[in-house]
Structures are given as C-alpha cells and as structure tokens.
C-alpha cells in the first residue's frame, strides 16, 4: 500500500506536462495561422480597406467602386475624401499617381493598367510620393510658363510656354545628313536628343532609307520672325495652325528635329508620310526615343495640323508608350 501511494504523485507529475501541452496547443496553432495569412486575407480581415475595384472609372462616376478606389488611394498616402464621387480631387490624385510610373499615361482615368500599378504600390513593390508627380496645368485661354524647360518631357504647346530668353545649354550638331552645308542654328539639338537622332539615322541607313534632317533648334527671335511672316501672309488664326507663337515652339527646346526625304525635294509636307522614309519613321522612331509630335487625327488635341515630319525626343520608354497606345504627349502627361 505504501508503494502505491508513492507512485500516484509520480504518475500525476509525469502526466501533467502532457495535459498542459494538450490544453495550450489550440492557442499556438491559432497564433501560427495568423502569421501565415496572405496580404489578401489580411485585407479581408480589415474590411477590404485595400481592395481595388474593377476598371474603368473616370470623372463623373459615383458609387461604392469609387469609394473603394478612394480608400485605396488614401492607404497609398493621398489626402482624399472618400465621397464616392470621382471628383476633381480624385482626378488630380490619380494623375499624380500615374505620372510617377513611366508606363502610365497621366490620364486621370482609373483603368486596368493603373489598377496593376496600384496593387504594386499597396504591396510595397512600387514607391509613390504623393504630390511629387509631374502633372502640368493646362489653360486653354492663356499660356502658362513652364517651370521645367530642361526636362526631357517638358510640355510646350499653345497653353504651355517656355520662360523668356530660354536657350538650352547643351546644344550640339548631330552627325547626320542635312540638305544644306551651312553651320546654321537649325542643325543643333540638345546633346542627348542629338545622339539619339544619330542612332535613328544609322538604323535608317541599315534599312535602306534615305533620311535627311532639315530643322532642329530655333531661337525665340527666329520664331518671332517666322511667325510674323506667316501672319502677314495668312492671318494669325491660320498661321497658328501650322506655326507656333514665339515661346510656344517645341523647336526652342532643342528636343525636336524636322526630317525629310529627297523624294519630296527635302520639303516639309504631308507627302513625307507616303515616302519610304516617312513610313519607316512612323514605325520605328519610338525605338530611338522619338514620337511624331503632331499625328494625324489628333489635331483637336495638339491644336496643330498633321506633321509626319516633326519628331520630338521624349526617351525610349515614354516614346514606346505613346506609340503603342496611339496617344499624344498631352494625353500622356494628362494635360487635357
């Protein structure tokens, strides 16, 4: 009997850890499961705060989908009122977000491409700095002076003018063919654009086309002389459809070159589009960072006539987006 009494406490002590372990296992298991939740599961637990609606949403849209979008943008860091109305505040934030990713036109419209990049931003795979996007302000009635004249994406048009007296500091003459021999200012471009033009011409040579450069940099004073002459001949309204007012010319940026062909006697007209050179440029200019700045069918946006010869340098990634989406620089920058 004494042996049995001694064994009983020993049995209880040996069994106790097993009992305690069995009691605590569900708590440990639950804790472990919480650690293994995916981001999507966490979002669901938190009330879908980070969920993104299906596209497309744009100005004037209302409802829960807009609220989801606004909530997600607040999570990214934008100061928005979750109103359910796709208002000017939402458009401004959307353009700011889009302009920070080179592959997104800053249209202010929420679409499938924007949704993909917002997912990356929410998951920490894409860094966004709210308010740091390069979104120009457009004023159709009066030109605003741009504050980034040296930027490769500077927008210069009838509502965005260059600062008074602006002259690019890095102008050089690209080593390409011109139909003249004089050392004129129109030979010149900014250094990066000039080297890109050289690459474009080399590729054109390999493709068997006979491309010529005709007119690059143009000073403010030169534009004054040209535009005045056109106004005297055709009137200001007509002249401004094919020529820029002084300060509003892309040629003054040093990022533009008009190109031509012997087949049209080195002229600058729409017949260039029908030449082998014109067709090749349209198909391949973006591969070297250039866009046809005033494309056919976009006159209502650019406010200028169709100019298949007018090439503008914007770098390869941006040029590719503009080319593939068949949009203008205004549309890409969200300046409409």
Structure notes:
- This protein has twelve helices and eight strands.
- The protein folds into three domains: 2-36; 44-122, Muramoyl-pentapeptide Carboxypeptidase, domain 1; 144-333, Muramoyl-pentapeptide Carboxypeptidase, domain 2 (2-Layer Sandwich), CATH 3.30.1380.
- The termini are far apart.
- Residues 1-48 have low confidence and may be disordered.
- It has 336 residues and is α+β, with helices and mostly antiparallel strands.
- It has a four-stranded antiparallel beta sheet with strand order 5-6-8-7. Strands 1-2 form a two-stranded parallel ribbon. Strands 3-4 form a two-stranded antiparallel ribbon.
What's the layout of helices and strands?
Layout: H1 2-35, H2 39-45, H3 64-76, H4 88-98, H5 112-122, E1 144-145, E2 160-161, E3 171-172, E4 189-190, H6 191-206, E5 212-215, H7 220-234, H8 236-242, E6 256-260, H9 276-284, E7 290-294, H10 299-302, E8 307-313, H11 316-325, H12 329-333
Parallel strand pairs: 1-2
Antiparallel strand pairs: 3-4, 5-6, 6-8, 7-8
Task: Kindly summarize this structure in a few lines.
The chain is an alpha+beta fold.
The gross shape turns out to be elongated
Question: How many structural domains does the protein architecture include?
Answer: 3
Oligomer: single chain
Helix-and-strand structural type: alpha+beta
Largest sheet: 4 strands, antiparallel
Number of helices: 12
What proportion of the residues is helical, as a percent range? 40-55%
Terminal CA distance: 99 Å
| Poorly predicted ranges | 1-48
Side by side, the strands of the main sheet go: 5-6-8-7
The CATH class of the largest domain is Alpha Beta
Radius of gyration: 31 Å
Number of strands: 8
CATH topology of the largest domain: Muramoyl-pentapeptide Carboxypeptidase, domain 2
Order of helices and strands: HHHHHEEEEHEHHEHEHEHH
What percent strand? Answer: 5-15%
